[in-house]
Amino acid sequence: MTTKMPLFEGLGTAGEKTAVILDIGAAYTKIGFAGESSPRSIIPSEIKRSRTEKIDKVDIFAVDSEELYAILIDFLHHIYFRHLLVNPRDRRVVICESVLCPTLFRETLAQVLFRHYEVPSILFAPSHLVTLFTLGINSALVMDAGYTETLVLPVYEGTPIIKGWQALPLAAKAVHSNLEALLLENGTVTTQSAGHRPLSSIMSNVPPHILEDIKVRTCFVPELAKAKMIYESQMHGDSNKRPTPPPSVEYPLEGDKILHIDGKIRETSAEVLFDLDNDEQSVATLILDSILKCPLDMRKELASNVVCIGGTSLLPGFRQRLKAEILDMLNRPKYKEELPLTTIKFHNPPSVANYTAWFGGAIFGALEILAHRSVSRDAFLKHGRVPDWSSVDDLSQESEVIPKEKTTLPLSSLTRQLAKEK
After folding, report:
1. How far, in Å, are 50, 193, 328 from residue 131 at the CA level?
2. CATH architecture of the region 136-170+282-336
3. Where are the domains of the chain?
4. Residue spans of alpha helices (H) in 21-126
5. Which of 34-43, 164-173, 182-191, 397-406 has the lowest average pLDDT?
6. What CATH architecture is 13-133+353-421?
7. Which residues of 20-30 are buried (b: 16+ CB within 10 A; e: fewer)?
8. Under 8 Å between Cβ of 365 and 21
9. What is the pTM of this model?
């Protein structure tokens, strides 16, 4: 059996070994090396503990630092010695993270990497910002539709506009909950022994991995016009006005069980993302509200440069429906006066949406500037913490850990660096 080794060993400062790129998400983690166009592996963010034999999630929002520390040790051991097959001490690390990542998680992760695995340095790169590196643009409105939430963050001239962020717990987890409820209510199962039976009579809940597989294989987002017709028929209780649903499909469960998934379930499971809640918010309003929180001179450029990343955005029809919803809402009184926009434009990143942020980190990790932007192990052991954009209590300490140049990752510096290497 041949062992896959990282490419581009010559890239980096003084020919050092290529950096490890990590993007730890709530559901999946993308891992690989700098300079490559796609991750080596995309694995669930969970680990089977060596001592307890129990499967634990890598909880980004954990509150128990000791338990999180132990989980991350096993998780990173699995990454380094099962998937990457490299020595952690030899390679710098680039971690693509949300700017809203809890401080406890990032500091615990740094503790594990620096103290247990003794990596030489770590760069915490904002995922929304490094996404723009894949497109070569300075400004954009980045929507990350992940597993637990959808987060929108504007980036202008290479700087994240923190006051413009918007987030809602509308993402894959919400779709899974809605899909499970529809399946238990309307799904039927055929078996050789018991014939045709409701799904709810066989199982009280649907396992998460089955929900994920059903969503990926069978579900989609309908067009706005069709969605409005479906909503009207439900409101008036008139099934005759409902448009013709797509064909039903059969999904094999364990044993001889065959799950029949009605076409109505396939086209309505993702509607939870676009249905307005009591506060009249949805994934579409996130973009408009984020633009409204930005200065006037930024709004037109942000609306012309929207980038969708994250696994939920891969649902068929998601981006087309999102654009239609935004254009429809621009005619409503809430936005018509304050946002005189007539168009909105989306970018097509040169990678699959679920690992676009990782790809941006891989681009930055291949540059010589990485060493100057990272936090070294010596500096971390000296001060005991990772500098954060919100840490203003001791600027003198921060200046020793991070060089005095700008701590953001402006695209202009990336462009100059690429020009030098060419």
Report:
1. 35, 52, 27
2. 2-Layer Sandwich (3.30)
3. 13-133+353-421, 136-170+282-336, 172-273
4. 65-78, 103-111
5. 397-406
6. 2-Layer Sandwich (3.30)
7. bbbbbbbbbbb
8. yes
9. 0.86
